[in-house]
Amino acid sequence: MTTELEPLGPETARQMYLDERRHELADATLQSHDYRLKQFVQWCENEEIDNLNDFSARDIHRFRVKRRNEDELATASMKGQLATLRVFLRFCVSIDAVQAGLDEKIILPTTTADDARDELLSRDRAQKILDHLERYRYARLEHALLEVLWHTGFRIGAATGIDVEDYRSDDQYLALVHRPDEGTSLKNGSKSERLVALNDRVCLVLDDWLEVNHPEVVDDHGRTPLFATKRSRLSRNRGRTIAYQYTRPCIYENKCPHDRDIAECEARPTEYAHKCPSALSPHPVRRGSITHHLQSDTPERIVSDRMDVGMDVLERHYDQRSAREKLEQRRQYLPDG
């Protein structure tokens, strides 16, 4: 161990890193780093690594193998995990917690377009989920949230930042507003601000949610959130849990595609819904919504503006149409003569 290093535990280092980056990163990015580093800290605890001074390139390899093989991370997810670990270790180098150059030992996996879009909620599956919610949880929080997420393709952070006053029932739209000083920032700052049209079905659910089931609470800034629990504004973590909870096939079909005993399945309790192999976070819901819009002949520029996604990102990460589908959709714009 290098004598110049100063002892530092993984959890303390994580907190120091997050405090350092808090004013540099968007809220959603910081939350992603927090989640990924929690996985790393947990691994260190399991491996009885309580001082980062002793952390080595071989430990990086062991952590990588664990996340890839045991946790079955997809290539794109593994790349995000390791990219965050690399900048974290770079920070640790700067405060004399790990050996200089250790961050450079992390080699990121190469992802392809297929890796980037391997998970999405299909239109048919989305319809089954929404039909189930309409029947059993009509105009409850989870129904209102998932109707909006599927119809708009919003990021979960954008959805949880919406206030009641941002919803215009008569004009059928939602206004997305960047409010970083009040804890509800948008991914691309003020550039993400926009008005997003809604259809009759979504407005009906939102109207009934507000009239019958909305808890009418205010957040710490005196604002009334559109999506709220009995205590305050819906958190992003709770929003993710709702997505995991209702994308499990056993919930909307009462059968398991993985041949598990539903009553005994470890993913049956809501808090462990994420352990279901078929459960999806909000991002695959967003990816599925965007893909559905494209497959429904919505022009790419409209999808780009509506979902706040650049054209290049749209093509690489979201567009799952086949070359033949694109051909046939373009055909309708050809002149007759």
TrEMBL record:
Stored InterPro entries: CB, DNA_brk_join_enz, Integrase-like_cat_sf, Integrase_catalytic, Integrase_recombinase_N, Integrase_SAM-like_N, Tyrosine_recombinase_XerCD
Signal peptide (residue range): none
Pfam families: Phage_int_SAM_1, Phage_integrase
GO MF term set: DNA binding
Keywords: DNA integration, DNA recombination, DNA-binding
GO biological process: DNA integration; DNA recombination
The keyword Lipid biosynthesis is annotated on this UniProt entry: no
Domain of life: Archaea
CDD domains recorded: DNA_BRE_C
The Tyr recombinase domain, residue ranges: 116-332
Core-binding (CB) domain residues: 8-93
Protein's recorded name: Integrase
Lineage: Archaea, Methanobacteriati, Methanobacteriota, Stenosarchaea group, Halobacteria
